[in-house]
Each structure stands twice: as C-alpha cells, then as structure tokens.
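>> received
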Amino acid sequence: MHTTRRNFLKAGGLLAAGAATGLSVIPGELFAATPAETALPAGEGAFMLPPLGYAYAALEPHIDARTMEIHHTKHHQAYITKLNAAVEKEPSLKGKTLEQLLGNIKLTPEAVRSDIRNHGGGHWNHSFFWTIIGPVQGAVSEKLTAAITRDFGSMVLFKEQFEKKSVGVFGSGWGWLVKDAKGKLSIISTPNQDNPLMDIAEAAGRPILGIDVWEHAYYLNYQNRRADYLKAFWNVVNWQKVSELYES
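>> returned
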C-alpha cells in the first residue's frame, strides 16, 4: 500500500462530493468504491482523512458504531492534523510521501522527528487498519493459507500466537503480521504508533495484517478486556484484502 500525497488529495476531493449524496467513496488501491460514512473535513495540508469505505455500524456487534466514529473522525483526524503541522514547520519534508517520511525517521530534523514518528505513524497505521477490516471478510487465499500453515502450524495456532503477541503489548501499540522478501510470515508488535515501515523498527518485513490495541480502539465496548477484543477482531478481518497484500 502506498499512502501517497496524491492518494490523499484525491480522497479530499471525493469527500466533498460524497457529502452531497450521503456517500463517501474513493477508488484506487487503498479503498474500495463502496458506500461509506462521510469523513469530517480534513482541513489544510498534504495529508487528508480517508473515508472508511463502509458504515460506522457495519462491524457491530464486534466493534460498535460509536467507537468506529470516534476512532476515525477524532483520533485518526488528530494524527493527520498534527502531521500536517509538523510538515509545515520543516520545508525539507514537503512533497514527500508518508512512506518516505516514515522510512527516514532517523534522518528527519530533530525538531519535528517525534511528531513525524508519532503522528505520521498514526496516520499510516489507521489508514492501513481501515482497509484490512470490514463487513465482508472473504476467504483466505490458498497461498496465504499455505504460508500460515507453513510458518505457524495452522490457522488456529496462528490466531493464538497473534492474540498472545498483541494482548502482551505493554500500554498502547499494535500487533502485526508481516511478510519478508521471501514470503515468510512472522508476528511482531510495535509500541505507540510505530510500525514495521520505520527505519527504527524491527526489520521483519511488510505488514499484511495489523490490529490497533490502543484503548481508544475498544474501550467503549470491552473496557479493560483486551483479550476479548482480540478474539472479536477475527470476525471483522477482511481476509480478501490480507490475501491480496500477501500475494502482491
């Protein structure tokens, strides 16, 4: 997935059109052209809030509508607003894609490094997250099934290991299923809004599945029961998208 400046500018133009019709749709590699909740205006800047591609209530009862609405329009939007502000402060960063920013955190000017890491990471992570969950799960492809069986023993064992890794994140962070250059799968976690694309992260591969284990992702429904949220997560995973990411 390439979260480029062009992609997000396109998203902004479609949001305005969607507001008039009650739909928010965006074509392209990030988001399917399906009915969606209208995103809030993203404001000025290179990066903009993408629509989900489905209604906030579409994942109930596993993830409630209010959590999805707040998560998308408040938390995700806040990362974008602060990321744009950081880019504005540092002219050398203007025009760079989100992945270029995240892949060069070590070289980012110190004055904005933390903001790019935290808010740029938050923007990429959430944009990715919305695409690998949804109301339609699809089937796990034969190639991905074979890889999961090869690297974890079975789908059941994979889910157990993924849940264990993600529930064990101390404080806030993410659990990831990543693929290396040879197609080998592994499970890792990152703190806060770090992700495997960052040049400060564990060099394990590219994400094909991820779960947000910040409390804002689940607390209204699950309170402190992170393990229950993780089990419910499997009911909303878009396996068709995950399979496409593995095979691409």
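>> The CA atoms of residues 83 and 120 lie 6 Å apart.
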